[in-house]
Amino acid sequence: MLHVSTRGEASPLAFSDALLAGLARDGGLYVPKAWPGLTADEIAGFAGQSYAEVAERIIGALADGDIEGKALGEMIREAYAGFRHPAVCPLTQIGDNLFVLELFHGPTLAFKDVAMQLLGRLMNHVLTLRGERATIVGATSGDTGGAAIDAFKGLERVDMFILYPQGRVSDVQRRQMTTVDAPNVHAIAVEGTFDDCQNLVKAMFNHHAFRDELGLSGVNSINWARIAAQVVYYFTAAVSLGAPARKVSFAVPTGNFGDVLAGWVAKRMGLPIERLMIGTNSNDILTRTLQSGAYEMRGVSATTSPSMDIQISSNFERLLFEVHGRDGATVRRLMQSLQQSGRFEIAPEPLARIRAEFDATAVSEAETAAEIGQTWREAGYLLDPHSAIGVAAARRGLKLDPATPVVVLGTAHPAKFPVAVEAASGVVPTLPAHLADLMEREERVTLLPNDQSQIESFIRQNARTVRGAAA
Ligand SMILES: Cc1ncc(COP(=O)(O)O)c(C=O)c1O
Ligand SMILES: N[C@@H](CCOP(=O)(O)O)C(=O)O
User: Fold this and answer.
1) ipTM reported for the complex, 2 dp
2) pLDDT tens digit string along 299-318?
3) Which residues are within 8 A (CB) of 176 and not within 5 positions of it... i.e. 6 or more apart?
4) Are 410 and 383 in contact (CB under 8 A)?
5) How far is CA 231 from the centre of its chain?
6) Ligand 2 center to residue 252 CA distance, Å?
């Protein structure tokens, strides 16, 4: 199956080519040309299967034979063997019809590990088959960076450069990026916001001479394979609550719109999802957009859920493409308007299509802290601030529809955000044993201005890949 760009002008690519490309050459994001479907019987058959078995079926359907089946199965099994919970992504009940899907049992304690541990293996596999190398550039508001560095550290065929906003990630998040002693990974602190970092990454991809010279690739959720891997846990969670016979809703703490988009993809593939509830922090551009139809940028404020301090929600472009009948020209026009004036308007019909499947709600800093405190007191369950935003969104959804179970995506371990969690609950969350000495490890980081040419020079000087060929 081929993958097409949301902006309609780049050449369609097979799964493994889209995996290495990251962003399409027209600036768009890749999506499969058609959604593979699973029957209700097949979905019911997932009950009792391991996470890796379900992943093999779902990712196999999305990769559509482009990654050889036996190799894919082995990579999936290896990717999840190191998770600290045998279920990989277990489900915990914290209230009436209220569940947390714990996505933080991977090495860096965030949901990013679920996709990234597989992505590292997939990329290494494809690059090895082709005898190529790649230079990965990524932007992080805190979690993607650590997960990517862990998954790619030491890989011979890859150099990795991760841009994060200086002073705007938690100490644990920063140290997970800066204390890894591997010559192929580089943490770059940028004087700017996450949106600046993400804009720099996209600008490097759109600088085609640089892109080709360095063999650029990306591991942010602009990379279609990231979303594909995230689809799996929607199936495992819903099936364990009775799907496909029973509908389930999901509440998703949202920033770049990748995780909740994966839920929308699961629904397209046949999973009976009732509602997809977006929870935003006070950087509430998505909530405002669903209310008014106007996607309008404002300044980003720093919150206790820093990974969601985002205004340019990259994957929303994929949804825009779908609700506009896959019309790349319209998406190009909307994205141009965003770049030129910081806003665009969604017409009534596509907006109605979005509202038919998604709800959105903004959760303030005070409400986030109150949710952490309440859930700890009532359920004895410690939430991180991001997951707390999901729980607050779920509680609002349950008031409207108490009969449908809601699964909140628990996107990070509370110990990644100890200051906010302790302030809200009085409990100091502790890091798992493998990270116990994180705060004592030596840091290695380069501070650079928000300037594309200086960042490109740094990457050129430090990357071992030239023109995508093996050095
Ligand atoms: C802990 C955490 N929760 C939620 C999100 C938001 O996810 P997405 O950007 O896929 O919407 C992020 C960042 O991506 C995150 O790191
Ligand atoms: N919240 C993310 C931001 C980048 O998101 P991605 O899913 O597009 O990689 C982070 O923690 O870095």
Assistant:
1) 0.99
2) 999 999 999 999 999 999 99
3) 108, 145, 146, 149, 150, 435, 438
4) yes
5) 11
6) 14
**Against a cut of 0.95, is the pTM above it?**
yes
Check pLDDT > 70 for residue 467.
no
The protein residue whose alpha carbon is closest to atom 12 in ligand 2 is: 140
> Coil, strand or helix: which one is 406?
strand
Interatomic CA distance for residues 300 and 284, integer angstroms: 9
- Contact by Cβ (8 Å): 121, 78: yes
pLDDT for the residue 470: 41
Q: Is 255 in the pocket of ligand 1 (CB under 6 A)?
A: yes
Tell me the one-letter amino acid at 160: M
Q: What is the pLDDT of residues 381-420, one digit of tens each?
A: 999 999 999 999 999 999 999 999 999 999 999 999 999 9
177's enclosing H/E stretch is helix 171-178
End-to-end CA distance of the chain: 31
Cα–Cα distance, 101 to 104 (Å, whole number): 9
Instruction: Please state, rounded to an integer, the average pLDDT across all residues of the chain.
Output: 97
| Pocket perturbation via mutation, ligand 2, pick of 29, 220, 417 by most ligand atoms within 8 A of CB | 220
Mean pLDDT over residues 273-295, rounded? 98
Query: Which residues partner with 120 through β-bridges?
Result: none
Which residues form the catalytic set?
112
- Give the distance, in angstroms, between the CA of residue 37 and the centroid of all CA atoms in the same chain: 23
User: Quick one: tokens of 373?
Assistant: 């405190």
- Residue of 109, 140, 170, 411 to test ligand 2 pocket, by largest number of atoms within 8 Å of CB: 140
The Cα–Cα gap between 266 and 38 comes to: 10
Number of C-beta neighbours around residue 191 at 10 A: 13
Helix (H), strand (E) at residue 6 = none
By CB atoms closer than 10 A (0-12, 13-18, 19+), residue 411 is buried
The topology (CATH level 3) of 91-109+224-425 is: Rossmann fold (3.40.50)
Distance from CA of residue 299 to its chain's centroid? 22
Tokens of 349: 């019909």
Short-list 327, 325, 318, CA closest to 349: 325
